[in-house]
Prior knowledge:
This protein is mainly alpha-helical and 148 residues long. It has one domain. It is 82% helix and 0% strand.
Amino acid sequence: xxxxxxxxxxxxxxxxxxxxxxxxxxxxxxxxxxxxxxxxxxxxxxxxxxxxxxxxxxxxxxxxxxxxxxxxxxxxxxxxxxxxxxxxxxxxxxxxxxxxxxxxxxxxxxxxxxxxxxxxxxxxxxxxxxxxxxxxxxxxxxxxxxxx
Length: 148
């Protein structure tokens, strides 16, 4: 049991490192879009977020299949389809949470569009990233039992 726990810890640490690179892509693209077109509109913020998340999920696929879950990566239709489903779920959940947080911040604070957008992004990223790790670990890159 200990080896299994250690392995799960290593996978989570690797996934976290990949998550940092995803965050840099995600937040970098979002902030570039907010710099080019500052907005207080939660709907426009969500559109910018979708563009950022698509690029971050592409980054995630590359790093997770080449490093974190390389032993379980098959690049077959089923695995790519499940990874795509995870990416779509991540975009949907992240965008919904971003929209809720942005609306709440707009209603109850006087924060600048940049600060409120990044605060809402942080809230949505933590939840969506944790959900993504669980989905990837349990469904996409789960260990296959050895066949006799």
